[in-house]
Amino acid sequence: MTGNYSSTLSQGSNGIFTGSFGAVDEVKTLVSEYHAVLMQAIKDAAKEETQRVRQAASDEKSPWNSIADSLNVDFDYNEGQFVYGVQGDEKTQQKAMDLEYGTLENAPAPLLRSSAIQGQYDLSLTLDSKVNNELGKRY
């Protein structure tokens, strides 16, 4: 953080002196901006990860090809994690379950689980980079 960290001192209406330190105000601003930058980075990362998973599923040899556009990655703010899932009707969701976990006739093709495992590390790096880049522009 750069800037002028001046202090102010004033007398309130009750006759008590109060003070404000510039460094404290700067940290408050940084915390507020960090939250906004992090939320945008999470939103962007989820969108990018959705595109990556859909692209992997879109390969013509992939059994996921017919439902690739239904795949989605969101961030669960309550759990603090990215969630890989399928949007669509019951038929689409059932097809995804059959592909992911297999059936008596077909072996599993665990695209969502493998993407989630790979994504843990990759998304961590992505978020770190996005937040650092954006805050680096400001500070």
Rg from alpha-carbon coordinates: 23 Å
The count of β-strands is 4
Strand content: 15-25%
Mean of the pLDDT scores?
87
Description:
By secondary structure, the protein is of the alpha+beta class. The protein has helices at 22-58, 90-101, 111-138; strands spanning 7-11, 17-21, 71-76, 81-86. It has one domain (18-134). The protein has three helices and four strands; from the N terminus they run ββαββαα. Strands 1-2 form a two-stranded antiparallel sheet. Strands 3-4 form a two-stranded antiparallel sheet.
Provide a brief overview of the structure.
With 139 residues, this protein is an alpha+beta fold.
What are the defining features of this structure?
two-stranded antiparallel sheet; alpha+beta; 3 helices; 139 residues; 4 strands
Describe how the helices and strands are arranged:
Elements: E1 7-11, E2 17-21, H1 22-58, E3 71-76, E4 81-86, H2 90-101, H3 111-138
Antiparallel strand pairs: 1-2, 3-4
